Amino acid sequence: MIDSSTALDRCERMLQAARKAGAETADVVMSASASESVTVRLGALEDAERSEEEAVGLRVFIGQQSATVSASTFSNDAAAEMAERAVAMARLAPEDPYAGLAPEHMLSSAADHRDLDLADPGEPSPTELKARALEAEEAARGVAGVTNSQGGSASFGQSVVALATSHGFSGAYRATSHGISASVIAGEGDAMQRDYAYRTARHLADLPSGTDIGVLAGERTVARLNPQTMPSGSVPILFDPRVSDSLVGHLLGAMNGAAIARRSSFLLDRLEDELFPDSIIITDDPHRLRGPRSRAFDGEGLLTRQSDLVKNGKVTGWILNAASARQLGLAPTGHASRGGSGAPGASVTNVHMQPGAITREAMIADVEDGILVTELVGQGVNGVTGDYSRAASGFRIRNGVLSEPVSGFTLAGNLLDMYAAMTPADDLAMHQAVNVPTVRVDGMTIAGA
Q1: Considering 194, 221, 248, which residue would you say is the last residue of a domain?
Q2: What does the pLDDT look like over 6-17, one tens digit per residue?
Q3: How many CA atoms lie within 13 A of 119 on its CB side?
Q4: Statement: residue 111 has pLDDT above 90
Q5: How do 434-435 and 351-353 pair as beta strands?
Q6: Are residues 159 and 178 in the same domain?
Q7: Same domain, residue pair 184 and 237
Q8: From the CB of residue 183, how many other CB atoms can be counted at a distance below 10 Å?
């Protein structure tokens, strides 16, 4: 796989080709990745895969007209052809008053590009990956009550991302990722239940052992056996960290500047409203060492920075790239995201809700009758109104104690009401891109048996 300097050199050559073809301004993003994974089932090798790919995306501007082209190969001839095609397309495109590169005075510099320790220098062999997968599956199958396996897997990936613009920005970084997972079955016939566990990390040293992953998968699966139904009604709902991150995910989608500009967000005209209890803080941290989405610069070359997305009960602003910022008359926030094709979007990096003051155990003990939700199914969320309706499963809470597993019910409410009634526990764990502790939400409706 190519290194960072090679990727940047290719970006610069593509920019030169774009200028020669007639582009007034342009930017180029290049990515390269290599990954391999090994899957085992019932102690035997089931699959081994390796893939490598490269992609380059060129965006050109002629006044307010623009076009984007992408390719999976790179050569001097291919660069010239891409540039000529992009410029020809831009000349035919309609004018977009919001199109253009990010403001030049806001660009980050090489001095700003701190080392975020995203690349593990070690690369596992296929034999090592197989050993990790076998360890995870063996541990999961060893949990009493597990009757079958859907497999264990281990993976490793590495990538390089480079971005260069015609107004002087140039940056690149390399990252790696290790992963382990296991999925098993408990019970027989119609009573079978399935669950899983997985973890990923930039560095192997931050990854739990295959044994820990496997035991967790097995215990989760066995705990689901013999689920009961729930009566309809309204009871306190606790969202386990396995699913509580989705509640913040819906918020992030509604904060996206493109949704605000389209007036298709349930947060529209709510920027000054107190939507959360004032103790809740949600932070975006692009500079988290070894973070899964850490980056020193965004997809348009702007410096990223840590910021509180929610503070004092209020959303602090919108998630903006250059185009949505212009449309809203605001400044870009360093959240541009860029793939190989299409114009930049906007996305956050490493997000977490800061933990509360109550333990998860105390939170459960305070519930006379309620549910700890561990799985959500379906996409029943209206991004315009905030209406929320999703199938769920989890565990009944009776007299302050976790009791039998429950399934086959639906949770319904409105996200704005849910945010206002939200209480976080203190069990925040930082190992995903979006990390949220257990949260309690009162006032939701259950549609059950």
Answers
A1: 221
A2: 999 999 999 999
A3: 13
A4: no
A5: parallel
A6: yes
A7: no
A8: 22
